[in-house]
Amino acid sequence: xxxxxxxxxxxxxxxxxxxxxxxxxxxxxxxxxxxxxxxxxxxxxxxxxxxxxxxxxxxxxxxxxxxxxxxxxxxxxxxxxxxxxxxxxxxxxxxxxxxxxxxxxxxxxxxxxxxxxxxxxxxxxxxxxx
Length: 130
Description:
130 residues, alpha/beta, Rossmann fold, 7 helices
């Protein structure tokens, strides 16, 4: 079984626009043999983007977040102090706090990060799938 941590855009697309996922990502997310994990950082990022008007179409996802994550068959992943310390200490020239948290969680939880974002390829040791 592979543990898959969904990047925020992968989560939004998996529930609302699965056609936007790559074929490989869509197959991996749909495979019941994989363990899907969704970070609290994604809830935080989505809520922030909705509030700022940068992703208004995600408002239903924010409002129904727990039930949508459950329907997807994913397990919520809380942010711990261990995750926070790793995110802050990553030797990675990337400033986005949401991306840093997702990367730290994927590394610490031994998960493959499902993402289209090529910035993650610069982080040694992080497995990504797209």
